[in-house]
């Protein structure tokens, strides 16, 4: 585990370690880190009970090919595969509305594992909202063809976690910037012919939503640094391929406290 911000320990170094090792990062304030440590101790000592429930959240925004693909070729077949291989677990698909996501993390309905597949909100490096909202989950309420800016009612941010306890939960967010944002574009060759990589942020930083989730008791949150791509689950010409995702979640199920 790396302890510190990506300014101190770079995302590049983390990626290089991850070639051969399972690598996590704890980038929290001293107070939140202490709270997280307490949550881990309570979970590992059997003081936390979570239900055998996996919740799958996947918006399919009208007119948007990316979320149609992630909903139909990742989230839906993943739910089917998890039901088939884990018959003692409840696997629920809740659509993509913000209200449904908010309801599923309430104390009485909190799952052991929350899997989301959506757009992650992105801002230009000059926008003052970038550090607090980058990587927020874009929900079903967003209308891409409207041409209107994304509103708070259409996204799920760290503010929507608030003081809700997430003890024992594991989060997995397939969304752009859902774990963090590097200083420069890791995929410059895919979108520009310029020799220098475009700058994404003044400094690299971890996403605020997973930070809040960890501070509120979640044991781990898996997400993307930089953008997420459909080829992760739909390799060109091969259709849907979800084995990496299902294998990862089955491993997490084996570790879940029930």
Largest sheet properties: 5 strands, parallel
Q: What is the H/E order?
A: EHEHEHEHEHEEHEEHEHEH
Overall radius of gyration: 18 Å
Count of alpha and pi helical runs: 9
What percentage of residues falls in helices of 4 or more residues?
Answer: 25-40%
Structural class: alpha/beta
> Rough shape?
globular
Strand order, main sheet: write it out. Answer: 4-3-5-8-11
Distance between the ends: 25 Å
Q: Can you describe what's shown?
A:
Helix 1 links the parallel strand 1 and strand 2. The two termini are 25 Å apart. Helices cover 33% and strands 13% of the residues. The protein has 258 residues and is of the alpha/beta class. Helix 3 crosses helix 9. Strands 4-3-5-8-11 form a 5-stranded parallel beta sheet, with helices on both faces.
Please summarize what this structure is.
With 258 residues, this protein is α/β, with parallel strands linked by helices.
Features:
two-stranded parallel sheet, alpha/beta, 13% strand, five-stranded parallel beta sheet, globular, 9 helices, 258 residues
């Amino acid at each position: 585990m790396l302890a510190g911000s990506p300014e101190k320990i770079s995302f590049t170094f983390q990626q290089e370690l991850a070639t051969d090792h399972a690598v996590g990062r704890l980038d929290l304030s001293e107070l939140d880190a202490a709270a997280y440590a307490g949550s881990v101790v309570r979970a590992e000592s059997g003081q936390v009970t979570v239900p055998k429930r996996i919740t799958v959240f996947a918006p399919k925004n009208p007119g948007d090919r990316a979320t149609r693909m992630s909903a139909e070729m990742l989230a839906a077949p993943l739910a089917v595969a998890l039901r088939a291989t884990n018959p003692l677990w409840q696997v629920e698909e809740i659509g993509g509305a913000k209200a449904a996501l908010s309801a599923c993390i309430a104390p009485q309905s909190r799952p052991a594992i929350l899997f989301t597949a959506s757009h992650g909100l992105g801002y230009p490096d000059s926008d003052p909202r970038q550090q607090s909202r980058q990587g927020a989950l874009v929900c079903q309420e967003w209308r891409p063809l409207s041409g209107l800016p994304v509103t708070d009612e259409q996204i799920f941010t760290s503010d929507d976690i608030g003081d809700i306890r997430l003890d024992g939960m594991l989060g997995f967010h397939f969304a752009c910037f859902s774990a963090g944002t590097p200083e420069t574009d890791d995929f410059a060759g895919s979108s520009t012919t310029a020799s220098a990589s475009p700058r994404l942020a003044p400094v690299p930083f971890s996403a605020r939503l997973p930070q809040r989730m960890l501070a509120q008791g979640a044991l781990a949150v898996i997400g993307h640094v930089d953008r997420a791509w459909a080829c992760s689950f739909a390799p060109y010409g091969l259709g849907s391929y979800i084995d990496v995702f299902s294998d990862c979640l089955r491993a997490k199920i084996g570790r879940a406290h029930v």
